[in-house]
Write a structure and sequence with these properties.
heterodimer; A: 293 residues; alpha/beta; 11 helices; 7 strands; B: 106 residues; alpha+beta; globular
């Protein structure tokens, strides 16, 4: 897939923003029309047992929407994270819902019934109030992605505006294909955390232009850490997801190309690195292409 | 966090359930489901303490026009009374939409 590939912007009036949709509507929008069926929905009231102990109001679905349906007629499962609830943070319950959905898809795939998995990332990472339980379940999500991607592409979407950070950024990096918008961001530590820990001289978290130059969707696609840049358009994102499945399982996943990325990293001088230099080095698809293919 | 419970008389049966909203800043989620008894019960879980009298005013006004035997759970993250009223209206509309669809398909 071409690094700079992107769809032509439709007229503004005809475009339905994907970013503005709730996680539930996002899941519905990605599946074939009329096939959305939610699992463990709000009326199942599977809520966090830890938040009320800390005086925090629960959401009835714990901020993770799991939906079965179809994509181009093939069975599919979507795990969509609701960013408005606790910043899309992954708690014991919300994370277990996602891991469980992926593990069930894996079981189906192992029995020869392929299920197409999609994760809609919109998360700051682990839910700090649930600490190790959240971290443990993120590891389960990551293990499930790695096991699943041998059978079927695992497709990730980072639309924004929260983005994808922390342990879940590693989960996103394990996906077979990542679709981002210009508004989406992908990084290990969020800008505020970097400013707080390393000082404002290192990074000014209020400098939005700078932040998006470093970790925005355009930069991530240009440097090959995400695959497809798409406009904030529900139809365009749904189409990109379908194309990602049609393309099949990549011969080598990004996270398997260890030698390639080590050699690219060795070409980066941390003292002089800029968004442009990162692009020119990481976007160089010919570098060590032998290992990549 | 505060938990409040309110009961209101009801005259009509609710035959579908609806979920609207998110527990996000300044917002709330409403879970509206049929109640077995012919009365309405509202359970409010709110992050903001000490506003029971405002909740009562908002719900009194809502139930002056709504008479469904509903079990309503509200999970609130600091929504203003206006937002609460809109979300309640949205939940009722969603239930009526579902009931309407069931009627059409029947």
């Amino acid at each position: 897939m071409n690094a700079a590939s992107e769809t032509v912007a439709p007229s503004f009036a005809a475009r339905e923003s994907f970013i503005e949709l709730t996680a539930r509507e996002r899941a519905r929008r990605l599946l074939d029309a009329g096939t959305f069926r939610e699992l463990l929905g709000p009326f199942d009231r599977l809520t966090s047992p830890w938040l009320p102990l800390q005086g925090i109001v629960c959401q009835a679905d714990d901020g993770a929407i799991i939906a079965r349906g179809s994509i181009d007629g093939e069975p599919a499962v979507v795990a969509a994270i609701e960013s408005a609830f606790q910043g899309g943070s992954i708690g014991e319950v919300s994370g277990s819902k996602i891991a469980g959905a992926l593990e069930l898809a894996l079981r189906d795939c192992e029995r020869g019934r392929t299920v197409r998995p999609i994760i809609v990332f919109e998360t700051g990472g682990v839910r700090l109030q649930e600490a190790n339980l959240g971290l443990a379940v993120i590891a389960e999500i990551q293990a499930a992605i790695v096991a699943l991607r041998r059978h079927v592409p695992v497709v990730g979407v980072i639309a924004g505006m929260v983005g994808c950070f922390g342990g879940m950024s590693l989960a996103a990096a394990l996906c077979s294909r990542l679709i981002m918008t210009r508004q989406g961001r992908l990084g290990m530590n969020g800008p505020e955390v970097i400013e707080q820990e390393a000082g404002i001289e290192e990074l000014d978290a209020s400098d939005r232009r700078r932040i998006w130059q470093l970790i925005g969707g355009e930069q991530r696609v240009a440097s090959g850490l995400a695959d497809r840049l798409v406009d904030d358009d529900a139809d365009a994102i749904a189409a990109a997801v379908r194309e990602a499945f049609s393309a099949g399982v990549p011969p080598v996943h990004r996270s398997e190309a260890v030698g390639r990325y080590l050699s690219l990293l060795s070409r980066i001088d941390p003292d002089t690195a800029t968004p442009e230099s990162m692009r020119s080095v990481f976007g160089d698809r010919t570098a060590n292409s032998k290992e990549c293919e | 966090m505060e938990h409040l419970t309110f009961d209101y008389p009801a005259r009509s049966v609710v035959s579908a359930r609806a979920h609207v909203g998110v527990v996000g800043s300044g917002d709330l989620e409403v879970l509206l489901a049929p109640n077995q008894a012919m009365q309405a019960r509202v359970v409010v879980n709110t992050s903001v303490d000490g506003y029971g009298h405002i909740w009562k005013s908002v719900l009194d006004r809502f139930f002056s026009r709504y008479d469904g035997a509903a079990q309503i759970e509200i999970n609130d993250f600091g929504a203003t009374p206006g937002v609460v009223a809109l979300r309640l209206a949205e939940a009722v509309e969603a239930v009526q939409g579902t009931q309407g669809m069931q009627g059409e398909s029947a």
